[in-house]
Specification:
514 residues; alpha+beta; BirA Bifunctional Protein, domain 2; Rossmann fold; 3 domains; five-stranded mixed sheet; 23 strands; 40% helix; 24% strand; cytoplasm; aa-tRNA-synth_II; nucleotide-binding
C-alpha cells in the first residue's frame, strides 16, 4: 500500500465494504465522529473485549469485574475534578474558521520530525545491510539526535505550559514553529482557550425538578465509588483490582481519524488498589504485563513503544502510554497511571463517607493507592484492523487483499463452501458440518461464485479457514481446509476439523504467549 494516507483511506473503505464499521445514521448523512459497528465489527469488538477480560479478570484471582451505570450522581464529577478541569486546549484558524486541539497540532508537527528520523533509519539500513544496528544508529547519529532533541524540547515546553495553564505560551509555540492550518495553510490563529468535554443531560420528568447530570467521560469513577462495596462483599485483600468495560462520552470538538477519536467510545479499565509506598513496583509490573498482552496478538514488536508523560496530572506520580504505530503514526493506545490516593480521598471528602481499607496484617486503616491500566476498545479495534489489512503480490503476478486478523479475534473462524451449490448432497453435508462446528466457533456458509472468488472474499473478510466440501467428501468424509495466511490446502477428516480450528483460535493458545 502506497503511503500512510492511502493506507488509512483503504482501512476506512474496507471496514465499510466488509461490514465492520458504518457511519452512524448514514441515511441522514451521518453524525460526525459517531460510528456503528456492523455485523463483523461487533464480533471483532466482542472478541477483543473477551480477550482482555480473560487476561485481566479470569486469569487473575485478585481482580474482579463490575458494570457501573453510565449515569452517576453529579457530585461524583465535582469530586473527580472533571467539572472544573476536564478541558482541551482549542485554537481556531481565523481564515479557514476550523477549530483544532492546540496540543494535537504540536504533536502532529513532532510526528513529521519523527518521520524524518524513520527516513534516516531506512536509508542507513539500506546502506549497511545486515550489519545495521538500529539502536546504535539512533543513539549515535548526529542528525537523528538533533531531530530527537528538537522533539523533546517542543513536547517538554508544551507539557509545562499546559500544566501551568499558560495558554499564551502554547499559542506562541505554535507561531514559533510556524504551524499552519492543515486545510488552508493559513497561520492566522486565535488565542488558545480551554473547552470542557463533558456532555450535560437532565434526570427527571419535570423541568422544574430535573437534576443536571453528565454522561460519564470515563469509566474509572464508577470503580472508585464502588471500591468499598466490592472489597467488603468480595472479602478482597489488598492488593486487588476492579475491572470494567463500558461506554464513555466526550464532546470532542476536534474528533477525527475515523474511530480513533470519537464522541461515544468504549473503555477497558482496571484500577488496582495497593498499599501506599508499593506503587513503584506495581507500576513496573503492569507496564510489563500490559505490553506482554499486546505482544501476544502478534501485531509486531516494532509497532509498540512506551511514551512517558512529560506533563503529569496533579494527582499522579508516574504515567506512561503504550503507543501503537497506526497508519497516521505512533499514537496512544493504552495508559498506565499511578494515581496515588487522590480519587478515594476526593470521594471521601465530597461524600463524607470513609473509603478506607483495614489491613489486618498491619492492624491499621489507610486509603489505598491506585494503579490504573486504561485502554480504548475502539482504538484497539483500529490497531488490530489497520495492522491486519494487507495487499500481497502473488506468484502469478496477481494481488490479493487479505485481512490477517489474529485468528483468536477473527469474527468468523471458518467458512464452509460446497464446491457446487446446486448439488443437494454437498449442500446437505456442508450444513451438517456447520451445525456441528457452530457450538464451538462462529462459522459462515458461502456458496455464491467460483470457489477461487469465495476464497478471496473470505481472505478480505479475515476468515482464518475455508473448508471446501466436494464429491470426494461424500465418499470418504474428508474435506479440503485452506489456511488464510499461507493459502496452503490440506485434505483432512471431517471429524478432525474441530481440533484443527481450536488449535489456531483457542484463547489459551494465544494468552500462553504472554
Amino acid at each position: 500500500m502506497a503511503n500512510n494516507d492511502d493506507k488509512f483511506k483503504k482501512v476506512i473503505s474496507h471496514a465499510k465494504e466488509y461490514g465492520y464499521v458504518f457511519q452512524s445514521s448514514e441515511v441522514y448523512d451521518g453524525l460526525s465522529a459517531v460510528y456503528d459497528y456492523a455485523q463483523n465489527g461487533v464480533e471483532l469488538k466482542k472478541n477483543i473485549r473477551d480477550y482482555w477480560w480473560k487476561a485481566m479478570v479470569q486469569m487473575n484471582d485478585n481482580i474482579v469485574g463490575i458494570d457501573a451505570a453510565i449515569f452517576m450522581h453529579p457530585t461524583t464529577w465535582k469530586a473527580s475534578g472533571h467539572v472544573d478541569a476536564f478541558n482541551d486546549p482549542l485554537i481556531d484558524n481565523k481564515d479557514s474558521k476550523k477549530r483544532y486541539r492546540a496540543d494535537v497540532l504540536i504533536e502532529d508537527y513532532c510526528a513529521k520530525i519523527e518521520n524524518k528520523i524513520e527516513k534516516e533509519v531506512k536509508k542507513a539500513a539500506k546502506r549497511f545491510g545486515d550489519a545495521f544496528n538500529k539502536e546504535e544508529f539512533l543513539s549515535t547519529n548526529g542528525r537523528v539526535l538533533g531531530y530527537q532533541e528538537k522533539i523533546n524540547t517542543i513536547l517538554s515546553r508544551m507539557g509545562k505550559s499546559l500544566e501551568n495553564e499558560d495558554l499564551a505560551d502554547v499559542k506562541a509555540l505554535i507561531e514559533e514553529l510556524e504551524i499552519a492550518d492543515p486545510l488552508s495553510g493559513s497561520k492566522n490563529w486565535t488565542d488558545v482557550k480551554q473547552f470542557n468535554l463533558m456532555f450535560g443531560t437532565k434526570l427527571g420528568a419535570s423541568a422544574d425538578s430535573a437534576m443536571d447530570l453528565y454522561l460519564r467521560p470515563e469509566t474509572a469513577q464508577g470503580i472508585f465509588v464502588n471500591f468499598l462495596n466490592v472489597q467488603k462483599t468480595g472479602r478482597m485483600k489488598i492488593p486487588f483490582g476492579i475491572a470494567q468495560t463500558g461506554k464513555a462520552f466526550r464532546n470532542e470538538i476536534v474528533a477525527r481519524q475515523f474511530i480513533f477519536r470519537m464522541r461515544e467510545f468504549e473503555q477497558m479499565e482496571m484500577q488496582f488498589f495497593i498499599k501506599p509506598g508499593s506503587q513503584g513496583e506495581w507500576f513496573k509490573h503492569w507496564k510489563e504485563a500490559r505490553l506482554k498482552w499486546h505482544l501476544s496478538l502478534g501485531l509486531g514488536e516494532d509497532n509498540y513503544r512506551f511514551h512517558d508523560h512529560e506533563k503529569l496530572a496533579h494527582y499522579a506520580d508516574a504515567a506512561t502510554d503504550i503507543e501503537f504505530k497506526f497508519p497516521f503514526g505512533f499514537k496512544e493506545l493504552e495508559g498506565i497511571h499511578s494515581r496515588t490516593d487522590f480519587d478515594l480521598k476526593q470521594h471521601e471528602e465530597y461524600s463524607g463517607k470513609k473509603l478506607q481499607y483495614f489491613d489486618h496484617e498491619d492492624n491499621e486503616s489507610y486509603t489505598p493507592y491506585v494503579l490504573e491500566t486504561s485502554i480504548g476498545l475502539d482504538r484497539m479495534f483500529l490497531a488490530v484492523f489497520s495492522n491486519a489489512l494487507q495487499e500481497e503480490e502473488l506468484e502469478n503476478n496477481t494481488t490479493r487483499t487479505v485481512l490477517k486478523l489474529p485468528a483468536v479475534l477473527a469474527p468468523v473462524k471458518a467458512a464452509i463452501l460446497p464446491l457446487v451449490r446446486k448439488d443437494e448432497a454437498l449442500v446437505k453435508l456442508s450444513k451438517k458440518i456447520i451445525d456441528d462446528l457452530k457450538w464451538d466457533f462462529s462459522v459462515a456458509y458461502d456458496e455464491k461464485d467460483a470457489v477461487g472468488r469465495r476464497y478471496r472474499r473470505q481472505d478480505a473478510n479475515g476468515t482464518p479457514f475455508c473448508i471446501t466440501v466436494d464429491g470426494e467428501s461424500l465418499e470418504n468424509n474428508t474435506v479440503t481446509i485452506r489456511h488464510r495466511d499461507t493459502m496452503e490446502q490440506q485434505r483432512v477428516k471431517i471429524e478432525d476439523l474441530k481440533a484443527i480450528i481450536k488449535k489456531e483460535v483457542d484463547v489459551k493458545e494465544w494468552l500462553m504467549r504472554m
